[in-house]
Design a protein that fits this description.
Number of strands: 7
Strand content: 15-25%
Radius of gyration: 16 Å
Number of domains: 1
Strand order of the largest sheet: 1-7-6-2-3
Bound molecules: zinc ion
Number of helices: 10
Largest sheet: 5 strands, parallel
Length: 221
């Protein structure tokens, strides 16, 4: 498994997520009780998406490659990052008709010049031969940064913020969609994207991210 731009010490400290995990949200579990296991959070409040998988626990070590990608636009680590994602999401990728990244609002895209989730989706698409709809979803309105917001405020912040681009509906309807993002924190953004895709007729929506927050107290991004 490639370590990309990470030092051997940092690579050794990465916490890769492996079985047993929650079938629904991909959070690591202490033990597996049956063929299909849901964590207590998913049992109490099932997410909108069908299945989510993450390569890494989002923590102090995985934070650096995530921020390198998001803030400085460093692409040199991409093949390592997507290699880890392909391993965690192999079944989801295989079963997907189309990969769709979580979009930035165009004003943020203009300032930053790139969308890190789009890069991840395009790289995975190129490596696996899966179709990628980079502009399948649009942000219908600009939302303040999710940083520093707790779960309920995050959901309110992004509620209704996404829609399927009208010209792309025919490529979403009846399809199995795999949503791609860099980090899953509370899941509010990915939930809002799933809603938009299902409203446009997507038959099934899975989620694949590079890293996920495992405890809400770790929400610092
Ligand atoms: Zn779960």
């Amino acid at each position: 498994m490639g370590r990309g731009p990470l030092s051997p010490e940092d690579f050794a400290r990465l916490h890769f997520i492996s079985d047993p995990l929650c079938d629904r949200c991909g959070v690591p579990l202490d033990y597996r009780t049956g063929d299909e296991t849901w964590c207590v959070v998913c049992l109490a409040r099932p997410p909108r998406w069908d299945r989510a998988r993450a390569a890494l626990v989002y923590d102090e070590t995985s934070r650096r490659p995530v921020l390198d990608l998001k803030r400085s636009g460093r692409r040199d680590g991409l093949p390592a990052l997507t290699g880890w994602m392909r391993q965690a999401g192999s079944v989801l990728i295989e079963e997907a008709d189309v990969l769709v990244p979580v979009p930035l609002h165009y004003t943020r895209l203009v300032v930053r010049g790139f969308n890190q989730s789009g890069w991840l989706a395009q790289t995975i698409g190129a490596e696996t031969g899966r179709r990628v709809l980079v502009d399948g979803l649009v942000r219908a309105r600009r939302t303040p940064s999710q940083a520093g917001l707790a779960g309920r405020a995050r959901r309110r912040n992004v509620s209704g913020a996404f829609r399927v681009r009208p010209g792309r509906k025919g490529l979403i309807e009846g399809k199995r969609v795999l949503l791609i993002d860099d980090v899953l924190t509370t899941g509010a953004t990915l939930s809002a994207c799933t809603r938009a895709l299902k409203q446009a007729g997507a038959r099934h929506v899975d989620v694949l991210v590079l890293a996920r927050v495992v405890r809400e107290t770790d929400v610092t991004i």
